[in-house]
Amino acid sequence: MPTTAPARQRKKTSSARRDDGAPIIPILARKVREVEAKAQKNKLGPTNRVKFQVIAFLVREERARVKEDEALSDSSRAELLKRLDGVATILAKTAARDTSLIQLLEADQATTPVARRMRRDWLLDAGVDLPPEELVIDDAPAATSAPAVPAVATERAVRPVQVDARIESNPFLAPDAARVREAHQPRRQLDSWELMGPLYKSFAQGAGGGSATMPLPEVPEFDRLSPRGLEVMKHQSRFLESVREGHRRFLLADEPGLGKTAQSVLAASVANAYPLLVVVPNVVKMNWAREVERWTPQRRASVINGDGNDVDAFADVFIVNYEILDRHLGWLSEIGLKGMVVDEAHFIKNLSSQRSQNVLALAQRIVSTAGEDPLLMALTGTPLINDVEDFDAIWRFLGWTDGTKPGPELMERLDATGYTPADKAFYPAARQAVIDLGIVRRRKKDVATDLPDKLVADMPVQLDDEFGRSIAQAEQELSRRLADRYRRIIEARGDRGLADGEIDEDIVSLVANGELEESRAAGTDGTNVFSMVRRIGQGKAALAADYAAQLQRSVGKVVFFAKHIDVMDQAERQFKEAGITAVSIRGEQSSTSRQQAIDAFNDDPEVGIAVCSLTAAGVGVNLQAASNVVLAELSWTAAEQTQAIDRVHRIGQDEPVTAWRIIAAHTIDQRIAELIDSKEGLAARALDGAQVPEGDVESVQLSALKSLLRDALAA
Question: Which residues form the Helicase ATP-binding domain (predicted)?
Fold first, then answer.
């Protein structure tokens, strides 16, 4: 859709520049500082990456213009080029912090509508007379149907034998081109505004805005949905009434343990959204099939495994895990799906991953072929891991945005507020506009008041053997390496007026980011933050297992979480030696084996401990037969820790839950635990409207490295 700069901005003087040899330079200097500040906080989302790119090619454009401007004196030209070099230096420094930006430095033109619009607005602000063709920007793509299968997935595509029979009995619908055209209606006052940044900001500043839940109908007088012997809870019933009233797109972000699976299964029944596709982590495929049978016994579910040779193509619900979705995109896009549920939707937050691209491509295909508004649901109790821009992929999946601008429905709601991002009132209004599209977030303490309390207790342990001393030595070596790099940079550039004992935080960030990039490349080889945490986990394994065994003897069933396989192996050996029957829940298990282990833990009184992978069993698993959790190793995120604990603290639990974190005292382990706790405020502020301070959103790994470096410099 064409967008034109506001008339007041086009009334410029006849000269190319005004009152300065290059008035665009102050604008570029201000914008590059904004990007630099975001990079220091690890907040470089899509909007700021575009801004970085636009600054880079405007610097090149301006440098070329200054060199060719014969009206400039040599001294003026040298001064302007020096100022441009200053902007370019900050760009390079920022790219050193985030190496993914380096490729953006190579762009020599604005290639996207968002970038072209940004360039246009900055040049107009600088007083540049632009030709008419640069004032009007067309960002409307041709009305084409969504590709059925991304090119990268075609090589792995499979086609179960029954699929053709189903398609012949119910041919898939052709793309609805009218809907595509409808999505590009002209907009109004917000046409020329960049809105994604302000939308994210509206959630980052969510304090005081209330819980992120759309208005829901009251509880109906009669429960018309539950099969015999089951009953939906009030919060579930209100959600389902909104589906009955016609709402079809949801981010269901209830806290873990409040029955999102049951709500989704019943929502599909209310909306008659069959055939329905459910995309899930591998660990919960069997549980989803059970829930379909339990809540909608009249419907058939088929779990897709491997190449899908045993798929029932005439089923009502298809359940597939993320890892094999690419093989089945082709035939799934042809059978006329009327709904799609993405469970643990934070799994798709990385838009560069093939997993995310597969989910988004299929959702787009469903929307274009469903004939009527399909049911799209993203389920996650922890949608925000490090940054509010974690919303990006989920909003794209639901069609609320396309990553660069709001979708037509959201745009209409934003226009209706009467505000622009220049108005302070825009932000709470924009947050509510997004929420009203279909965000539903309920907390346990509000809707499950009879659910017992949850406590996280730290259990410090001393690693005082030879292994523990080697860990301390490795940590000292890492601290010295960071401090040496910092001092070399300071010596090379000069202290620039630093007071005695003052630390340059920019250099701290630069050194820590460089170390983190090297650590990621090396993994657990050498001496780095990842290898140290791995070794600390190994050092704690025996102590954590011993504590879990003692706990099991005194309180009954215990869930033992670890991050690494060798820690799990060692714990299982100790439990066996202690005469405790344990089951294991790991990523490499088949769905059947995993479900058998879960059932044994919940139902067999002889099974005392479930040894679980923090990543494989931290989502979608019900282990409420226990009320005690031992976290032998720490996660890198608060969200992952919460997910693990909430395998136990969920509907059906009738005892207070205690999670025991085993912390290696006087090591980086203790620092990581503190950082995890400090970062829990993001979701509370953005989703629950809590009045909590806005803290850093950088990763725990980066924060830990910066903390180590500061301590080393202060010593």
Answer: 241-401
